From TrEMBL:
This is Tetraspanin-7. CDD domains: TM4SF2_6_like_LEL. May be involved in cell proliferation and cell motility. The gene is Tspan6. Keywords: Glycoprotein, Membrane, Signal, Transmembrane, Transmembrane helix. GO terms for cellular component: plasma membrane. It is a multi-pass membrane protein.
Length: 160
C-alpha cells in the first residue's frame, strides 16, 4: 500500500513539475488551438464550436486577441461575428454582426486568450493549495503504512 501511494505521489509530483516547466508551451498550444477552433467554427454545433461559444459567453470576450479575429474566418463571410460575442442577445442583428464597425459597438471587444490565461493563473494558487493538501495526506498515508508494516514484521512471532 505504501509503495502504491508513493507511486501515485511521484506521478502527481512529476505532472506538477512538467506543467510548471512547460507552462509557456501550454499557453502557445492553447492559443494555436483557439485560432484553429475559430477558423473551423461552424453552425453545425460540433464540440469545438460549442467550446468557443461557451468561452465567449462565460468570459464576455470575442475572438482570440480581439473581436476582429473573426474577420479572417469563413464563418464571418457567411454570417458575421457569432452571437455568442454579443453583449445583449436582443440587440444583435445579423446585418450588424457582418459589419465590423457596427459590430464593435454590440460585441465584446476583448479577446479570449488573455482572459482565459489570466483566469487560469489567478486560480492557480487555489489549485496549488489543494494539491499541497492532498500531497500531505498521501505522505501521512505512506508514513502510517510503513509504520504498520514495520509493526507487523516486528511482532511476527508473538502469540495473538
Amino acid at each position: 500500500y505504501a509503495m502504491l501511494l508513493s507511486l501515485i505521489f511521484l506521478i502527481v509530483l512529476v505532472a506538477a513539475v512538467v506543467g510548471f516547466v512547460f507552462r509557456h508551451e501550454i499557453k502557445t498550444n492553447f492559443e494555436s488551438n483557439l485560432n484553429l477552433a475559430l477558423k473551423d467554427y461552424n453552425v453545425t454545433a460540433d464540440r469545438h464550436s460549442e467550446a468557443v461559444d461557451t468561452i465567449q459567453r462565460t468570459l464576455h470576450c470575442c475572438g482570440v486577441q480581439n473581436y476582429s479575429d473573426w474577420e479572417r474566418t469563413e464563418y464571418f463571410s457567411q454570417r458575421g461575428i457569432p452571437r455568442s460575442c454579443c453583449k445583449s442577445q436582443d440587440d444583435c442583428l445579423e446585418k450588424d454582426l457582418k459589419d465590423p464597425n457596427k459590430a464593435k459597438l454590440k460585441v465584446f471587444v476583448d479577446g479570449c486568450f488573455f482572459l482565459v490565461t489570466s483566469t487560469m493563473e489567478s486560480k492557480m494558487s487555489v489549485v496549488a493549495g489543494i494539491s499541497f493538501g492532498i500531497a500531505c495526506f498521501q505522505l501521512i498515508g505512506i508514513i502510517l503504512a510503513c509504520c504498520l508494516s514495520r509493526y507487523i514484521t516486528n511482532n511476527q512471532y508473538e502469540m495473538v
